[in-house]
Design brief:
CATH topology of the largest domain: Glutaredoxin
Strand content: 5-15%
Order of helices and strands: HEEEHEHHHHHEEEH
Structural class: alpha+beta
Radius of gyration: 26 Å
Number of domains: 2
CATH superfamily of the largest domain: Glutaredoxin
Distance between the termini: 103 Å
CATH class of the largest domain: Alpha Beta
Length: about 240
């Protein structure tokens, strides 16, 4: 009888353990999902607040800090080269905040200040979102070799893919896109596949780091730093004050 009772108790304990495990695993999964979701929401909200993609998720850059930005003879410059105001943007073609800046700020700035001779606009690469960013920057330089840097620059921002779509910026695809911009694709392919402008892209990024850039977009207006896709009025006010 005692042996039978002992076996019955052991069976009950085993069943209890199994029931506990059945509830424990789903509960652990649910808890993990809640933690991960909360973390992602927090990260996303932090990114949206800063309006800039940061290297390694670093701290926000310092707004308004001045830097001595040297203008090079091979810089891509739009507008009057002798304009009183110089706008220098450090950007990554894959950065969603850079796309936002391009559409909501850069285009109005070009219309209001660059095309009217009041300012000049300079684009520099800060390709830090992986190899695909570097290839896209190199591709823009290869387009510039055929006199269409700005056309390819505009195409990349007007047709930007999500950051998760890495294949979109493969060299083969970039060559296809070059054809849509009217480039000689054979010449373009030879240029891109040889990494002819890799050093140029790296040099741009190095100059940005030397000036204190840690994310994109970062814009310098006569050396005054404005970080992120800030509202157009922020840039307008800065430029208007310099033009007075």
């Amino acid at each position: 009888m005692e042996e039978q009772i002992t076996k019955t108790e052991e069976t009950a304990k085993t069943a209890a353990k199994l029931n506990y495990a059945q509830f424990l695993l789903p509960g652990a999964i649910l808890l993990a999902a809640v933690i991960i979701s909360g973390t992602l929401i927090f990260i996303r909200s932090q990114s949206d607040t800063k309006g800039t993609a940061q290297i390694g998720g670093g701290a926000p850059q310092e707004q308004g800090k001045s830097a001595d930005i040297k203008i090079n003879s091979d810089d891509h410059i739009l507008g009057n080269k002798d304009a009183k105001v110089t706008i220098v943007e450090y950007s990554d073609f894959r950065c969603p905040f850079c796309e936002r800046f391009y559409k909501l700020v850069e285009q109005p700035l070009i219309a209001d200040y660059v095309n009217t001779g009041k300012a000049r606009f300079i684009f520099r690469h800060f390709a830090f979102l992986g190899s695909q960013s570097t290839w896209a920057s190199e591709a823009a330089e290869c387009a510039g070799e055929q006199g269409k840097f700005w056309e390819f620059h505009n195409w990349l921002y007007n047709n930007q893919a999500p950051e998760s779509d890495l294949n979109y910026y493969s060299k083969n695809n970039l060559i296809k896109y070059a054809g849509q911009v009217g480039l000689n694709t054979a010449q373009f392919a030879s240029c891109l596949n040889s990494d002819k402008y890799l050093k140029r892209v790296s040099d741009d990024s190095a100059s940005g780091k030397a000036a204190g850039v840690t994310g994109t977009p970062t814009i310098f207006i006569n050396g005054n730093k404005i970080v992120g896709a800030q509202p157009y009025e922020t840039f307008k006010q800065t430029i208007d004050n310099l033009l007075k």
